[in-house]
């Protein structure tokens, strides 16, 4: 049974309709969200029909490819807390990220990925035309991955497997720790991390069609603030927190909502759930202060 027949059988979608979805360029809705630096991030969200096809490919095709143990995002059990936990005891931490991560994974680089994994493709008995169909369904206009596609997170993890393993080997030899949270690369060590590691990262990124974001490359140590994937590491006991600024703002939001009836209850509850996951002691402390004002148990 070929690919189209399997999709038709499992989804009940006409084979010609699937082919048409792979050819159409108007199946994405475009919108923008604000970035921390004040700019805008473009989001391209696939239509409901295309999402169904992409989910099927994730669960029946891309799940056959390995994902490295260094990947800390887009998998069951992964979280920003788990990623930060890996580095909280590191006296020295390096953070960098990849410029236009999803968009850099193109049709050309995916074809190279398929060639590197030809044994897996061979086991699935896929033809060249079928792999082309797959790429046209998961890449925007058949050209590259985009932020907003349900397929991008899984595919990027599959694509980064070899990169992760190679960088992981380099880092392990230096007695350091490495994780990658989507496009964020984090390296930690008990010993000083010198600039030479950046040259090795750059060479490896270039090999897979990526560039390092120089503006988001920085070193941290215990003499200054240590922060990993948005979580702050206490320099005294290495515990994780959301940071003093966010914690104090959350207290103000709770006070304003309970006392002044201002603010958004759902947003506050979401922030509290995040705090509870990151640092249960901080959550208990804030609950002890404000629960007495929450007579209707709207928040606690």
Task: Explain this structure.
This protein is 47% helix and 14% strand. It has helices at residues 3-11, 15-23, 48-60, 80-85, 107-116, 118-124, 128-138, 152-159, 161-173, 196-207, 244-260, 265-278, 280-290; strands at 28-34, 40-46, 92-97, 177-181, 184-189, 218-221, 226-228, 231-233, 240-241. The strands form three sheets. The chain has a four-stranded antiparallel sheet with strand order 4-5-3-6, with helices on one face. A three-stranded antiparallel sheet has the order 7-8-9. A two-stranded antiparallel ribbon has the order 1-2. Helix 2 crosses helix 7, helix 9 (161-173) runs antiparallel to helix 10 (196-207) and helix 12 packs across helix 13 (280-290). The longest helix has 17 residues, at 244-260. The chain is globular and about 60 Å long.
